[in-house]
Design a protein that fits this description.
Elements lengths: L1 H22 L1 H6 L11 H22 L7 E5 L5 H7 L4 E6 L2 H10 L6 E5 L13 E6 L8 H14 E15 L13 H14 L13 H10 L2 E9 L6 E10 L1
Parallel strand pairs: 1-2, 1-4, 2-3, 4-5
Antiparallel strand pairs: 5-7, 6-7
Length: 254
């Protein structure tokens, strides 16, 4: 039953991001108000990604000097903003996203980057990737958009595909600070919500609601520990906005 509900919830996530990829992909990635409904300034969009990756990798290297630039995976790559930045630091980078539209956008923007590939994954696991396959597994502003039960599953998968001694660098909000209006779709069972949301989004040409989910640090650490990884650093993170307490985690696989 749990697996079936997770599958239905993941379908809602996929439908949301397919629609966002069609309607407003750059705003959906970094949610700048002045970009909503308008084309992004792409030079600024990608330059911001490079600056962010440089800052976070420097932060990670200071806490974990053994971090090496071999093979990296960017989970929730969107248009490839951070994947492309990682490709400047790692020998091979794989960007993964649930949305075919986002993957198509990423491939179009980065077709000239030879050490960067993009893969669509619509599963509640990362079965397409081998165990112990990556030196870095990275994810920013992605886990927050999948239900909590799936956050736990994906964290376990991050640890599985990371090589022993490799590093996980990811962000997850821990709690909501400012109570926002409840998402109306949450009032319905997942099967009903899926159908209603699909009909509504076909009729009304607006960007869909973006759900946000949280996982407290104690649970993050416990999930990783059970998967053979240990959190070695945890920093406050503002990428989820002022309504949430959020953290950037650095973990090492044993």
């Amino acid at each position: 039953m749990t697996a079936m509900l997770d599958s239905l919830r993941l379908r809602l996530v996929r439908n949301t991001w397919e629609r966002l990829a069609r309607l407003d992909p750059y705003w959906a990635i970094i949610t700048r108000p002045d970009w909503r409904g308008n084309p992004a300034e792409l030079d600024e969009f990608f330059a911001g990604g490079r600056a962010l990756i440089e800052r976070q990798l420097a932060q990670a290297a200071a806490a974990c000097p053994e971090l090496r630039g071999g093979r990296a995976l960017d989970f929730g790559c969107g248009a490839g903003r951070l994947s492309a930045a990682l490709a400047g630091r790692f020998g091979e980078v794989v960007g993964v996203d649930i949305s075919a539209g986002m993957i198509a956008l990423a491939r179009r923007h980065h077709s000239a980057v030879k050490n960067l590939t993009f893969v669509r994954n619509t599963r509640a696991d990362l079965e397409a990737f081998r165990t112990d396959d990556f030196d870095l597994v990275y994810s920013l502003i992605t886990l927050q958009h999948v239900p909590t039960s799936l956050i736990r599953l994906y964290l376990g998968e991050f640890a599985r595909i990371c090589r022993p001694g490799g590093v996980l660098l990811f962000q997850v909000p821990s709690r909501e600070l400012t109570r926002k209006p409840r998402n109306p779709w949450s009032l319905w069972p997942p099967t009903v919500a899926t159908r209603l949301r699909r009909v509504f989004c076909r009729i009304i040409p607006i960007a869909p609601l973006i759900d946000v989910y949280c996982l407290v640090p104690e649970e993050v650490r416990a999930v990783l520990a059970s998967a053979g990884a240990e959190v070695v650093a945890q920093w406050p993170d503002d990428s989820c906005g002022p309504s949430y307490e959020s953290f950037l985690y650095l973990a090492r696989k044993r």
